TrEMBL record:
Annotated PANTHER family: KELCH REPEAT AND BTB DOMAIN-CONTAINING PROTEIN 13, KELCH REPEAT AND BTB DOMAIN-CONTAINING PROTEIN 13-RELATED
InterPro entries from the UniProt entry: Gal_Oxase/kelch_b-propeller, Kelch-BTB_domain-containing, Kelch-typ_b-propeller, Kelch_1
Organism listed in the record: Glossina brevipalpis
Pfam families in the cross-refs: Kelch_1 (PF01344)
Matches recorded under SUPFAM superfamilies: Galactose oxidase, central domain (SSF50965)
Keywords in alphabetical order: Kelch repeat
Name of the protein in its database record: Kelch-like protein diablo
Length: 244
């Protein structure tokens, strides 16, 4: 990348990886800079910076826009238009500044889990067409480091020692099997009908194993390992390949 960063977020849109914000340990500073990666020419390019500094935030794409949601010590939400290379503002997340945020797209809505500094985290739904937030059921015992992904009509909350899923049609959280290896600060993505967990940290040591959760079988499997030490980062899927 063009800039050192951690605690950033990444997503894919139209075959391009967008990586935004984060924290620069060298300068001890939050970032609003952004970059995009084109797998065809294998180059990172700087794009317009966000309006707000943010890290530990949620990110997803919808209708040719990229949305950055919340993050540490902020309630702001903004969207990026790649066609114009410009950012626009969206309504803030409810209930004030967050501590840690994750977001995912399901149908025509953006769903977000927001931790406000205590262990409970409300689930929020943002409708980009209405530009309005709605509150859903809360999940409890939610330390930072979790990931949120979606498939079909279900949200999946993945954390080191507890995993849950929420069918948005009935708005009820249910327990699901935990990963084989407890880890924090990993990345999680959906590919086909599987959830993949990559990297992370356990007992102060990097975890290189990759676990796959088969949604149909309700089962975790250790399938591979990655070569790099990966944590506090973002992962996106482009044409079936993981970029992290």
């Amino acid at each position: 990348m063009n800039e050192d960063r951690c605690y950033h977020s990444a997503t894919a849109l139209n075959g391009v990886v967008y990586l935004m914000g984060g924290y620069n340990d060298n300068n001890d500073s939050r970032l609003r800079t952004t970059e995009c990666y084109n797998p065809v020419n294998k180059r990172w390019n700087r794009i317009a910076p966000m309006n707000n500094l943010r890290y530990n935030f949620g990110i997803c794409s919808y209708n040719d826009f990229v949305y950055a949601v919340g993050g540490y010590d902020t309630s702001t939400v903004e969207c990026y238009n790649p066609a114009t290379d410009k950012w626009g503002s969206c309504p803030n997340i409810p209930n004030g500044s967050s501590y840690y945020t994750r977001a995912t797209l399901l149908g025509n809505s953006i769903y977000s889990l927001v931790r406000y500094g205590h262990n409970s985290a409300p689930c929020l739904r943002f409708d980009p067409r209405e530009q309005r937030w709605y509150e859903m059921n809360m999940t409890r015992d939610t330390p930072d480091g979790f990931e949120l992904v979606s498939y079909d009509r279900t949200l999946f909350y993945i954390n080191d020692d507890s995993c849950k899923r929420l069918d948005v049609r009935v708005n009820t959280w249910e327990s699901m099997p935990s990963m084989h290896i407890k880890r924090k600060y990993f990345s999680a993505v959906i590919a086909a009908d599987n959830i993949y967990v990559l990297g992370g940290l356990r007992d102060g040591k990097y975890v290189k194993s990759v676990e796959r959760y088969n949604i149909s079988n309700n089962e975790w499997t250790i399938i591979d390992s990655i070569e790099i030490e990966h944590l506090y980062g973002g992962t996106a899927v482009v044409d079936g390949d993981f970029k992290f």
